[in-house]
Amino acid sequence: MGYAIVVDASVARAAGESGKPEPEACRLALLAIKNNNHRLAMSQQIRDEWMRARSGRLVPYASLFALQWLTDMQRAGRVQMVKLARSSQLRRRCLNALTQNPHTQNLMSAVAKDFHLIETALKTDKRVLSLDQKIVGHLAHLKNTTGAICAVMWVHPVIHQASNWLDHGAPDTPAYHVC
Q1: Average pLDDT for residues 75-103, to the nearest whole number?
Q2: CA distances from 41 to 5, 36, 56, 78, 111 (A)
């Protein structure tokens, strides 16, 4: 069996939009996870993001394409649910480090919002698929404080040609590590 891949809600949402390059790359990446025997790593926080209603509408944030894909993955027994602590020691250490540094204080809320992706990745195979590239720069500030996060690969569907990477087994690629 392949790797457990964390899929950010940004990818689940974009996969249902039309056009190129991001929507197509997101769809191809989801299909590559499915077709190459990888698994989906999902915490309750990630699931909640996928299912929360879009701005004032009663439809989930994730696209219909992504929801059908999720259903297929669940039927195949390829969704690995991960239980996260409400406030892990790693989360507290990272956010505290950002708060203590005057140059990174303003990054704390952005990192806090998506830190569950890092935590889920660390509890599985250390691979995240996301359209958000800003957080990679934010997390790099934590290299000396909490080097454990550096093991996580943060893969952008377009920039890193994620479907190709997944087709080739999602190998450990140093250039994709967050720091």
Answers
A1: 92
A2: 5, 15, 28, 9, 20
